[in-house]
Queue: 2 jobs
Job 1
Amino acid sequence: MFHTRTGQMKALLRQWQLQSMVIPGILWMFIFCYIPMLWLIIAFMDFSIAKPMLESPFVGLKHFRDFLTDDRFWRSIRNTLGMSSIKLVLGFPIPILFALLLNEIRSLRFKRTVQTISYLPHFIAWTIFGGIALNWLGEGGVINQLMMALGLQDRDILFNSEPQYFWWITFFTDTLKETGWSAIIYIAAIAGIDPGLYEAAELDGANRWQRMWHITVQSIRPTIAILFILAVSGILGSNFEQIFMLKNNMNMKMAESLDLYIYNMGLVSGRHSFSTAVLFARSIVALGLLLLANQSSKKLTGDSIF
Amino acid sequence: MARHGGLRRIGLFEIFNTLLMLAVCFLTLYPMWFVLVNSLNSPEQASLGTVNWFPSELSLASYSVAFNDKTLMNGFYITTMRTVIGTVVHVLFTAIIAYGISKTNLIGRKLYLKISLITMLFSGGLIPSFILMTKLGLYDSFWVFIIPSMYTFFNMVIFMSFFRTIPDSLEESAKVDGASDYGVLFRIVLPNSMAVIATIALFSAVYHWNDYYQGVIYIHSQELLPLQTMLYKIIAENSMSFMQQQAMAQFGARLPGNSIKFASMMVATLPILIFYPFIQRYLVKGVMIGAIKG
């Protein structure tokens, strides 16, 4: 369109207003996204926050060797994978089941009311929700009273001080808080299914379960696949706000996820370079996981993100 | 549902399913009800820890302790300020960029889009961001709540696709009348985008209201702590706040911590609970737009 450099300059000047809308944003991205990405390089240095960046000495893979031989690192990997696996295996189907069952409710008003109530906890802060959980799990709390009333235990258990319960506590609190919200996307997908399909199936004599399985589930399969890919690729992540709220010195050996390990090493102990090395390695593995999950989903179901 | 005959027999499944849904509602609402009941109980009752459906001894004592606590009220103020300023800044900044990028004749558009897409796929993470905030002087500054959350790629895309649906003829006629690009944006485009602005503003506001983590990481001074970070310290770290010490002096040896904790939790959640019935449809709409894009 423009044959000369000056022509291009003129065109650029003519749209200076549009450009001035976008350029501050691009600058913001450079400062808040690209500079931190560049600073991942401190994973290979002995960085000290008091000195200018380039005065810190390069140490190669020293920090990588250090964390790979740190037992606490491997413990945090185990905790992360443990919590993520419970969430993935037991937690992933729950919102789908909820959406399927909610869809079977006939009264439209009741259905809407249940849905609206179900995603309220998503908007309650983890400080509040975690605070309630800590109270319920503590001495004389709701859970202890319930268990004793049911005759399942004969004395108070301080659930949150005994590490073996921690993974389950994160699973149950997360399920309670997020099921309704996670179901929205499935409910929307179900709402988009052609009602004619159900009528045809009913005429063919399909019962409720057959319709649910062969029409509803099959129709929302792409949605399920995409969310499953995202869930699998996020397996090295954890809900930091949740874990940070529920952890304490007693349950730390089961509570310290990779995120929390990075936080503890980097910001509590001040080992910036060491923690950044862990961050760096994790980003690479996470990217690999995303690609792997995407490929296997493409092979198995024909649905994928890219 | 239309597909079910209206006169069909109500089977065992319907009964079971309805009960299950009622159970879901109960499990969802009960935790908040529990907090409300205990916050309204007298401190002595709440410290007994018995489970009640209603306050056994109605008392606003805990609320008066909470509302008279200067530290806590300062947290309330900081949270309100960051919610209002943070939301306005986020919506304006993101919408302006989105409008610029939505124009296909923008020179460099493809490059700009690539630059912003990469920010969603990769990030430096906790430690590099912490170093950046320190170097920028944002550590222990109020602006650490505002500036780093001014923009997200996700919301930019939502704005952009909404702007595309506004008929060109509207913008053209304003241009003919001599309006500049900024004039068109502020007088034509934004007033016609109230639905999407409401959605994004609400998500941003809920984020700012509920976030406690930024305060834990970046704030050192007591007077800059948001309400939720204070609650984190009171609940999870069990630190004695000024409030609790005062209450202990007031109520003697019986530790009335619980009901005051619950009252503070209620104060921090009330705005969400009050607005929730009115805003929830916008929030759902936001997820829908996001899901279609993503």
Job 2
Amino acid sequence: MSVPENKPRWDNTSWYVGKRVYLWLIKYIIKTINYFVGSDEPGTAACPNAFFHCTNAGHKPKEIPTSWVNDGICDCCDTSDEYNSSSDCVNNCIELGRRAREEAIRKKELLAKGYNLRVELGKQGKQKKEEYKAYLEKLRKEYEETQKVKEEKEEMKKEAEEKEKVALEKYKVEEDDKKHQQEELDVLRHRQEEKVNAENAFNTLDKNEDGILTVDELQQCLKFDQNRDGVVSKDEAMLFLQMKEEMEYEEFISTGWMIMKPIYMMDITSAPETPVVHSSSEEVARKEDHHIQEDNQHEEPVEGDSSENEIYHPPINEDDLDKEEFDDENPHPQVQEDEQKPPEKQEPKYDEETQKIIDAANEAREEFSKAEKEYKRISDEIGNTEQVLEVDFGPNEEFFTLKGQCFEITDREYTYSLCPFDRTSQRPKDDGSETNLGRWGRWVGPEENKYSKMKYEGGVTCWNGPARSVIVNLQCGVQNILTSASEPSRCEYLFEFTTPAMCFTPLSQMDETEHVHTEL
Amino acid sequence: MKMLLLLSVLTTLSLVVGVDRGNFKSCDQSGFCRRNRNMQPGESPYYLLMNNLKVSPTKIESRLANAKTGVLYTLEISALMDGMLRMKINEATPIRQRFEATEALNGEPKETSLKLVSQNSEGMTIEFGKNKAIIHANPFRLDVYSGDQHVISANTRGLMKFEHYRTKEQPKPENQEQEGPANQVEEEKPAAEVEDMDGAWEEHFKSHADSKPFGPSSVGMDFSFVGFKHVYGIPEHADAFSLKQTKGSTDPYRLYNLDVFQFEVNNPMALYGSVPFMVAHSDIKTVGLLWLNAAETWIDIEPATQQSVVSSIVDFVKGSTQLPQTDTHWFSESGIIDVFFLPGPGPKDVMKQNAILSGTTPLPPYFSIAYHQCRWNYNDQEDVRNVDANFDEHDIPYDVIWLDIEHTDGKKYFTWDNHKFPNPEEMINNVTAKGRKMVTIIDPHIKRDSGYHIHSEATSKGYYVKNKDGHDYDGWCWPGSSGYLDFVNPEVRDWWASKFGLDHYKGSTLQLFTWNDMNEPSVFNGPEVTMHKDAKHYGSWEHRDLHNMYGILMTMSTYKGHLQRSNGHLRSFLLSRAFFVGSQRYGAVWTGDNTADWDHLRITVPMLLSMSISGITFCGADVGGFFMNPDAELLVRWYQAGAFQPFFRAHSHLETKRREPWLFDAETKQLIRAAIQKRYSLLPYWYTLFMENEQNGMPPMRPLWMEFPSDQTTFDMDDEYMIGSSLLVHPVMESKATNVEVYFPGENQVWYDVDNYQKFNGLESSTIPVTMSKIPVFQRGGTIIAKRERMRRSSSLSHDDPYTLIVALDKTGQFANGNLYIDDGHTFQYKQGEYIYQGFSFKKDTLTNHALQGSEKFETKAWLEKVIIIGISTEPKTVQVESHDFGKKNLLFTYKSSTQLLIIRKPAVNIEAEWSIKLLF
């Protein structure tokens, strides 16, 4: 709709005001200084995004939606927005301005401090990154080395085992014989046991002790109620009598028992299973807890012992690294056991020569296993290090130093934990079982301020809901502090975190930006 | 408000969506339902004792007898105001008093004169108002006439049943008598009847026993609506507006206030509220029937069978046998037969008659018809502050923010969680500083915690409902073990009311209002998730007798509390989930825990229409759906529909994702904002409708046939409705819709699309293309609507803002009129005449403003900013405003010939002044 030109805006409002006209005129003059996008129908659909500009002399100027003008609420400290309303607004721009300036100075100082800290963090981060890169370099070299060692050891192992195989060949025949004998014995023993079982069963079932099992007798034994309807039907009973009405002792022992055994031996006391009905909220809670625990089993241990299990330890000095290597003495016990099984079962006594060969082979195997282990460790370490190097730690690596640290905040019920670039979690204050709220995902801030938000995702799935996740809002501050944690939506958490790494504005640029970003 | 967590454990272990029907009784599982439903039409054993007749100026009284048992009953037939008739049947000498639900009525209905026209041994004819009734003595039967037309017959099919109270020792003699009109079919199955009577003395449902100490007590009767194919009403059911046939296909419609977890649409199951009121409508007549009974009630509906058609009457009226007829059969577990016949003859007459009986919604405070923001839960003060600030930040108006159960200290109502809400008053004041309000939830279950003042007082004063053994009833609800206040006791109601006093309810202010949820009552571990029927109330009533009234008695008490806390100065706002006949007198009602899917969006229309025509006019459904997460499209469409429904509140379950508008993409946010803004722009219209509703019972949301009674195309509509008499709404309720098929009712009517002023003719359908921003709304030609086009943060900030008048001319292009009601928006001063009720009319090229119900006591600064005239075929040369204050003045205007639209700018006259705007050609 077109707007007639040369018409005073807002003129329509005052025709009945009478004595307020003078006041209004003054205000109108002030108002015309305002730029005023919109039409003669403020706040209507005709101009949905129009703003009113308050000069707020003495304080910062402000733009408010035109729908806030003359609504009885003092939104501008210079009262210009309520030029024609019954509310008694007081101009408090001077006072507000003074306070705002004081606050701004205070904030500026903090921001400046934060900025300096960020510069320092950037240095540290870059250094760390370099260290990582160097470490990766070193690892890659080691990788080649260990790969070579592994291959050598493998070759040696093969050779030793070849010899061993030949040496053991003659013992093998003997051994096989023994094994065969043993097997036969086992079979005999088993048959004997079965016969006793069959006899016992027959005697139990043969109620009238006439040496013949009948359908009637079987129907008395509830074990045969296969469909669990509470009665043993004739069909169900006959099934065990080769579909006949009766069966004699001999037939039972030879064939009948084999059919009946799996059913008969089953523990009938636990039989009629009823589905468990959960009927109270506690059970839900328990269910949930259980869920959490299950989940935690797949988790790495957290916090306290995390330093030992950290994927990467900053290569501060070589001692640590060495220590780590030696710490790692027995990483895959099962694999080792399996491999060593045949030689360990040294039942047959070997002659001295053979024994030597065997010992040599054992040694070669052990050597190889060590080499392989070291190879694997290095490979893993390379993977982990590469992963860390792939993370975006900010334009100047200023977020790098946050990695490896954890921050906590405790509210009335829970302690929340944020380990940047790693994980987030929550544990109840009273008992310690921890819930994973999500692992490091990605930066999710808006394009122009990418580093203002982190997302952690894939936490423990909520009962009847989504997997838990956390958004972390980052703000500039002189310290790394987790300032708040909340759950605005079910299982969607929100953390607030301050860090100097977010202080992007240097003092020199602050004055320029201050007017635009009046609120920080 | 919310699901039953406990039940949800059972039902959602595998994420089941949908009701667990096993938790609720079918007719087969209810003794009295079987006993009544299985009756076969035939000759009724009940007959009128003509020699006992007592005739007084307003009523006739007599006795009915059951020929099989010899039991005697009192019969009272009285004439009421506005041509209504009441029929009351009770036991003549009961061994136990029978409950009467009279507190649901808006006072004892006034009787008017009744004339006994003729009388003989076979019956009598009476006249009342313009109507008459014929009473047949043996078997007893009542034929009600609206004017000269036979409209309702009672007991024509002989399904009347009145199980008298008896002692248990007595072997069940009534069984043979009542079920057995000498009818061979009946005699062939006595075994089944014996089983039926077993259920009369003790019944089990799932793990619950109903001790039934007083035995069988049900009452039932059949009513035939003669000449009617369509019947409506009897809320609350999630089913079509035009009620379906139940006999032979489904269970009867059930009325038993229940907390149904994840209710399903399109079935006759009971829900949270009950209004046993039915409207029958045809192209020539509209009548109503109120079955005033607060016990569990079932209603069977079927089109008349050959045998049941009241043929002699048909002959009399039309000389044809083609007259349609709908047979209904009503039965309740206890209480009396107390039936009100509302003779119409038109839909508006029935609304008015129902208003006389059960009252109307008192004019709601202005804010309460605006937009409400709710969620289970806004977690703490900070959360409230943020949500409030975000509405400003995103420039979306809203009026009320709600706090669900988590705001309390351990679900102890009237308390606050001190950690989350340490300064409730400060929080409320921050919100109300911008003209907004807050609501807290207050439920009827009271935590059994000796440190809780409400509980300790209730216990020591004996204010709780008792179990069958006389101990305080102990049920499981949100706080765990809970007592249930006995609102049947007037003393308890007064005591409860006092708890809303600002001195009692710490942290509350006069800007804090109330939400009464779970008042069916919901008892998590009770039979059908409610109270045991053998629980005992004040006056030694059984819960069975009055179950459906528990909710209304609670809201009655809360309402009183609201009035008292301001010494009767300020209006109340409260929202209830349970409701009954008359609940409208205490506030708003919503449809309970719906689900975020398209079916549930669609069902809002028939559900709210059913409630609206039954008196529950301030009603709404949770926008967005309570359970599950709506996608952006569904949410937008729901906002668009909700903006055009009486009570407009978004609400969501604890376990859903947050869904405040700004959490969606920019377009979605903008669409939601636009929908809310449309609501705000029409608040003056809604407010006027609510005032008129208080006056005459006409629901703001109404079926098309209420405005166009003879337009048969409208009788089955579930997707289109009217707001007042001027706006037609057809919300988009299909996913990915690109158009909707809109039917425009009314002969010689024209309709205008409110967005683009496109014109449509009555009695025609049109395919209206829709984009995501389109809400198909049409203004009827011949009407004038006052709007406010400026957006404020909240409705109360708009009271001085100017109006825009939308004048939609009728088919002739000559005429339009409309009303506007204005008052202070929040006090009862309007009852002292402090209001403006203006009529606008356009005729002879002149728009004028005149007082309808004049009052000099209220003044407004609001003025007329713009006039839009639609359907004007030629451009005027001059537009001139003339007022008493400043004489004549020419106005700026623009004319668009393509849409025949005239926009007149800034008449700038006060809205209440006398003025005229003249078009000069």
